[in-house]
Design a protein that fits this description.
InterPro entries: ATPase_P-typ_cyto_dom_N (IPR023299), ATPase_P-typ_P_site (IPR018303), ATPase_P-typ_TM_dom_sf (IPR023298), ATPase_P-typ_transduc_dom_A_sf (IPR008250), ATPase_P-type_domA (IPR059000), HAD-like_sf (IPR036412), HAD_sf (IPR023214), P-type_ATPase_IV (IPR006539). Its cofactor is Mg(2+). It is a multi-pass membrane protein. Residues 164-230 form the P-type ATPase A domain. It is found in: Endomembrane system; Membrane. By secondary structure, the protein is α+β, with helices and mostly antiparallel strands. Among the domains are: 97-165; 166-313, Calcium-transporting ATPase, cytoplasmic transduction domain A (Distorted Sandwich); 420-447 and 702-767 and 778-799 and 832-915, Rossmann fold; 451-699, Calcium-transporting ATPase, cytoplasmic domain N (3-Layer(aba) Sandwich), CATH 3.40.1110.10; 967-1158, no CATH class. It is 44% helix and 16% strand. The chain contains 42 helices and 36 strands. The strands form seven sheets. The protein has a nine-stranded mixed β-sheet with strand order 16-35-34-33-17-29-32-31-30, with helices on both faces. Helix 28 (918-956) packs parallel to helix 33. The protein starts with 26 loop residues before the first helix and ends in a 6-residue tail after the last strand. 45% of the residues are buried. The model is unreliable at 1-11, 22-52, 802-806, 815-820, 1185-1197 and 1218-1240 (pLDDT under 50).
Length: 1240
Amino acid sequence: MSRQRADSQDSLGPDDEEMPYSDDETDDELQQDEDEDEEAPPTVPAAAGPEAGWQVKANDRDFCKLPEFKKKYFLCLKKSKYSGNAIKTYKYNVLTFLPLNLYEQFKRAANLYFLALLILQIIPQISTLPWYTTLVPLVLVLGITAIKDLVDDLARHRMDKEINNRKSEVLLDGRFQETRWMDIQVGDVVRLKKNDFIPADILLLSSTDPNSLCYVETAELDGETNLKFKMGLKVTHESLQEESQLARFDAMIVCEEPNNRLDKFTGTMNWRRDKYPLDLDNMLLRGCKVRNTEECRGLVIFAGADTKIMRNGGKTRFKRTKIDYLMNYMVYTIFVMLILVCAGLAIGHSFWYEQIGSNAWYLYDAKNQTASYRGFLSFWGYIIVLNTMVPISLYVSVEVIRLGQSKFINWDLQMYYSEKDTPAKARTTTLNEQLGQIEYIFSDKTGTLTQNIMAFKKCTISGRTYGDAKTTDGAPLEHGKPVDFSWNKYADRKFKFLDNHLITCIRSKKDVEMMEFFKLLSLCHTVMVEQKEGELVYQAASPDEGALVTAARCFGFVFLSRTQDTITISEMGTEKTYEMLALLDFNSDRKRMSIILKCPDGRIRLYCKGADTVIYQRLSPNSKHKETTQEALDGFANETLRTLCLCYKDISAAEYAAWAQKHKEASVAMTDRDQALDRVSELIETNLMLIGATAIEDKLQDGVPETIAKLAKANIKIWVLTGDKKETAVNIGYSCELLTDGMKIHYGEDVNGKLSDRMTRRRNELRRDRNKKVTEPFFTEPGKNALIITGGWLNEILCEKKKKRRRLRLRRLGKRQPPSNPQDGQPMDDWEKELRQRDFVDMACECSAVICCRVTPKQKANVVSLVKRYKKAVTLSIGDGANDVNMIKTADIGVGISGQEGMQAVMSSDYAFAQFRYLQRLLLVHGRWSYIRMCKFLRYFFYKNFAFTLVHFWFSFFNGYSAQTAYEDWFITLYNVLYSSLPVLLVGLLDQDVNDKLSLRFPKLYLPGQKGSLFNYKNFFISLFHGIFTSLIIFFIPYGAFLQTMGQDGEAPSDYQSFAVVTASSLIITVNLQISLDTSYWTFVNCFAVLGSIAIYFGVMFDIQSAGIHVLFPSAFTFTGVASNALRQPYLWLTIILTVGISLLPVICIQFLSKTIWPSVGDKVQKNKKKYELEEEEEEKRRKPPAFQRGGRSRRSAYAFSHSRGYADLIASGRSIRQKPRARPELRESIREVPQAENI
């Protein structure tokens, strides 16, 4: 049975509604906390205290350059601590590109190795190969990588230049002048106009709105397109309207230091011998966009790198794949093997020379060198000869394959979102195969899983439910058509509703309760309305409010206008004005809102809407339809709709007058004003009469539940990390089927208790042995648990906030940190804290679903890093706002959702697309293919180089270990570049075991990537032994054939050069046919590459061994006529065929046996590929949308629980009402709505 929600105020733990900031908290805030803990009341506001070191003087650029504001940045050099407004994300400039890029490339061990090798080849005494055999591939590698880096950095340059050169108007020399963003400084007064991006973190001074309101769109910050309002101080708004007034403005702002807290700002403005408090409502943050405000003026507080959006960016990390790390370790292994082999051969040469070479007169070379010295030279000679064991072309080939795979992602039309004209974009080319190894996905909610669009779906009125497809007579329809709202000129054309019967009832005006229902929706809200070009524009405190008012509008109850004391609506074409007596707004404790109105007929009525858990407690015993409404609410909850109960109460004039007096007294209370107002509100919100309930759908993006289900089958765990309230996140968890009825949900207090118990038990059991681990699981039924934890509890569990506070206090007192009480279950030292974090990760990973809500951007990143650290798992983060950037950068793979939301997350991501559902294709198709291709490529690449290089090793036993090569020099140069590169490159680019549809149909095919089973040290040593076997066959069969031979013409082509040609020919045919055996997906290009590589080899060989080229370059081409002479002998062709056959026959047998006796999941799918493809085609033909299945869950509204405080204070103050109301022009037929979410 699922655990019921416990209200945060009833718990002794952290407040679930509060967004904590762990180590992001500023010292002045923590000092306040310490003062409160020590029961010493704070005497000075935090921001105004002596520790608040951030001071800004208006219209004074020189103030920031004073010596006291300078800091050291290099040796004794100092610069201002105030950042300029220019941003820099590029890595190179014209002067630094070449040295820096070469430095970065030579940090790669293989490049440095080949540079050393090139130097060795220049030394005549030890050079066994010409220098160009190493120089050509090295220059190719460095050049291709440098061009790629240059292209990437030029894109960053262009982006930085575009942003830094945006224009804004800055007050300079007494007038506003157009200035580039990069030239804006702290202390400047800036003027912004409608649709301008905000260039820095700015204190709003005044605007063209009579109340100094400014509406901003925060899509770049949090991915939400809903508008938020900001408000200037009354004193600055009234005094700073003209240029001359702004030029004389000389206030001093004292505030907190720059930090990454998006939800808080604390400061004080000192002006005209008075102090004015500042908070986040007064700030316009960089990255936001001015909307619905003609003009506003502000003062720059933070610029450039100090702004909150840049502070939330997190540290840019260089990401590398698991295969990259593995490949480097394998290259080190090969290098060690190379050293050992060369040392062994050098020792062999010393002994050989001592025993044989020095005694053979025909081997005398006139060099009086000792055997040891000759062995030393032989060692370096073999280092050069066997250098192809460490393949330099490997890195170039890997880069080419990754580039191609990135292009395939960009070109995938099934990941193209036509509505927004947004294709998928691989913003990096280095992480593709990592997409096939993901184990954990960390997802944001708003804008990532959801569309952040609310839609009115159903309602229940007087015990009758409406919303299913019905005729005008109420008869159910299987396939209903949307209701025709053409009779209502104010209806929103985008609004869809299927129940025609409801419209018939409304238009008949017979049902009084129904009329009251929609009248309540049009009156009981805090929506603000503006008139723009003859249209009504709604500004709502949340998308839910906007959806309800829009629904009422479409059903004929149109909210038209409001003043401080009145609300005007159109009731089925009749305009009526209600006098507003009181407005009791939502908050997280009340979970409801009420409005008290004086109707046109003189009656006083209270309308109330809220969560059913609080409304049912306040209903009158005479209220009807409670049971039927409850049943409807349960049904709505099963469909994961956000529910809200509506009720009313008639109030007598005397009752209202008595209550109003109490309300007035509470509203002017100097202490605990909010609590006093809540208590007074309770007095009037009693004996309510239930009308019905609404059901709103928080629209998920298309395909989200299916995507999550498919990824779960691929053993990928999805965690949701969001800043939203707990109830909202839980509701979406059920909607997207991340949470199910059978799961047992564990909240923060449960988790903390279990972890504390584990810590206490561990202390009792492990007092003597710290290395002993407690391994029993936390839950008895694994797979049936879900963890839902808030940011406050996360800090409590990980001991983050306490750590910071304790450290700060001890630093100030100069004391050592005291140990924790062993009985409290809290960590006593860093070792225990690490164990507690590990326990938390283990517990979370035992759960099928994890939802972290009310978490900060930094906490999101911390959760990701904990899983990476303790599970060594490959992680992916996906989000759409600036608050997800840190998480995206921390994960192994970062995915940004692009489209109508902000682009901040996209700019920091590795991959970007428009819809969450494309994630399954990115991972299960592109990721899996990329992983399989890269593994197959690497296995084969190591094999072909071992087979090629170790022939020299076997040859050394017959040449006195003299470092003589077994092949012609040009063959060695062109082997990896021309003769064997194309087929394996095409396998790395095009190969696929099954097609994309079967990859999605069988998610289990993804499991080998998570286990890393297709490329590891086992596969590496298999490739090594396969290469050793092939090199043995390729050397010794031709050697045996050449030992005692005679040609048909009486000649004996058993010379070294003919042997080299036969060996090389056998090798080329063998390795090209071997890649054919490993190819799963044949195209014309693959076939052409294999046959073409063999043909190119023979063509080039005959050319470079011709007499003509020898005449031109006699020293470079010494194998004159060898190929034509040797390959005209039939028995040498028989030797080549025999060598190739014996090399490949064991491979064919092993592959046949493994697929027959021990088939993998992939082998089974491949075997039945045709059958599955036919089934897929038939299924597509008969596929229909699935019918909705009701569950057995009974949950409550997430809307009332999660809804933030609205605009009640603003409305009641009258500041939202224009001071000079104008006559309302004739409204257009379409009314535009701009919903507005909670303030940040």
